[in-house]
C-alpha cells in the first residue's frame, strides 16, 4: 500500500510553480551547503550583518534557481527535463569532490576535467562515489524526469519570472555594501555555487580554447653554435612535492640512490601553477604568458636538434616533432619492458641516443609517477618500502599516514628512475650529458584536510607549488651560476636547456639560466 501511495503521488500532476519551487529548494539544500558554510566562516560582517547576508543569499539563490527552472521547463519541455536531470547528477558529482577532496569547481578544475584521460579519471570511480551520486543525483534526476507538471499559461510565466527577478534585484541592492567582499572572494564563492560553478566555468574554458590560436606563436630563429655531441634528458615529474624528498631534508629515506649520486645539484624551486597543463606549459615556455608560445621541444627541433618526447602522461602544449611517443607506442616497440609503470620511458634510452645522427639531442620524459588519487598503483610492488599503504585518497582520508606511505613509495620509485637515467648517461663519455628533473606541481596529502592539487595559486598551500628541481651534468660540461635567486621558477628550464644545447637565440634570457653562459 505504501509503494502504491508513492506511485500515485508521482503520477499526480503538480503546477510548474510548485515543481520549480521544489527543484530550487532541493538545489540549495542538497548541493550548496559548502557555499553557505564558506560565507559564514569568511564574511567580515558582524553577527547581524552576517545573518542579513546569509538570508539575502538564500533568497537570491532560491529565486534565481526558481526562475531558471521555470523557464527551462516552460520553454524546453522534455529537453528541459533531461537537462535538469543531467544537472542533478553533475551537481551531486561536484558536491562529492568538494566534500571529499576540498576542491573548488573553478576554471582550473574544469580545465583539468577536460584534459583528464579516462585511465586517470577512472581511479576516482569507487562505490562511495556511485552511492553518493545515486542518493543525491539519480533520485532528484528521476523526479525531474517523471513528475507530471502542468505548464500553465504564458501570462503566469511572465508574472512569476518578473516578480522573481524584481525581488532578486532589490535584495542585491540591499547588499551593495558587500560588493568589495564578494569581489575579493569571487573565486571561492563561484567555485562552491551549484550548478553555476561548472556551467559558467565550462563556458569560460570552451571560449578560451576556441579563442586560442591554432598554432603557437613562433619564436625568433635560433642557431646551434658548436658541434660538440650533447644530450639533455629533461624529466617532467608529476605531483612531486619538495617536502617529501630526502634531498630537501625530509626525514624518511625517499632518495636512497640519488643521495649517493656525485654531481647532483639540488635547487629550490616553485611551480607556476598547481595543475599539469599550467606547470608543463611553464616548464616549456620562455616567459610567463597567457599566450601559447612555441614550446621548447618544438623550438629545439626547428633549430636543428634531435628531439624525442616520451610520455606516460598528458597535458602538454601541442608538440610538433617527428618523434612524439606515448606509453602505448613504447610498449609495442619494447614488448619486453614493463608497460605498467614509468620505467617504460627508459626502455632503449642509451641506444636511442647513440643512434642519433645529430650532435644535439633533447629527450623529454613526461612521467606520471606521483599522480593521485591512487599513489599505490604508480610503482611496482618491490618499491613499497613504507607500509601499510592507502590504496586511494578516500581510504587515505581515514588514515593519512597510510596515504603518505603510498605517496612516499612513489617518490622512492622516482628516485630509482632518475638514478637509472644518470647511470645510463654517466659512461657515455664521448658526449656532454645532462639530466634535469622538475615537477609540474606539488601535492596536498591531508594538510588542513586538503588532498591532491589544483587549487588556485592564491589559495593553494605551499606543498602544492614547492617542487623539486634536480640537475646532474657530466664533469666539465657547464658551471652553475653562483648568484642564483634563493628560489627559482619553472621558466629557468627553457633557457638553461638552450644553454646546454648551445642554441643561440633572441628568445634566450641569461637571467633565467641556472648555468653560466
Task: Provide a descriptive summary of the structure in words.
This protein is an alpha/beta fold and 517 residues long. The protein has 2 domains: 2-211, no CATH class; 223-512, Alkaline Phosphatase, subunit A. The protein has 19 helices and 14 strands. The chain has helices spanning 2-11, 16-31, 33-42, 47-76, 78-101, 107-114, 118-121, 127-146, 154-174, 179-184, 186-192, 196-211, 276-284, 296-303, 327-333, 349-354, 393-398, 400-425, 492-500; strands spanning 14-15, 149-150, 223-224, 230-237, 264-270, 306-311, 323-326, 360-366, 432-439, 444-445, 451-452, 466-473, 488-489, 503-504. The strands form 4 sheets. It has an 8-stranded mixed sheet with strand order 7-6-8-4-9-12-5-13, with helices on both faces. Helix 5 runs antiparallel to helix 8. It is elongated, with a radius of gyration of 27 Å. The termini are far apart.
Layout of strands and helices, then pairs:
Elements (H helix, E strand, L loop, with lengths): L1 H10 L2 E2 H16 L1 H10 L4 H30 L1 H24 L5 H8 L3 H4 L5 H20 L2 E2 L3 H21 L4 H6 L1 H7 L3 H16 L11 E2 L5 E8 L26 E7 L5 H9 L11 H8 L2 E6 L11 E4 H7 L15 H6 L5 E7 L26 H6 L1 H26 L6 E8 L4 E2 L5 E2 L13 E8 L14 E2 L2 H9 L2 E2 L13
Parallel strand pairs: 1-2, 4-8, 4-9, 5-13, 6-7, 6-8
Antiparallel strand pairs: 3-14, 5-12, 9-12, 10-11
Helix pairs in contact: 2-4, 3-11, 4-5, 4-9, 5-8
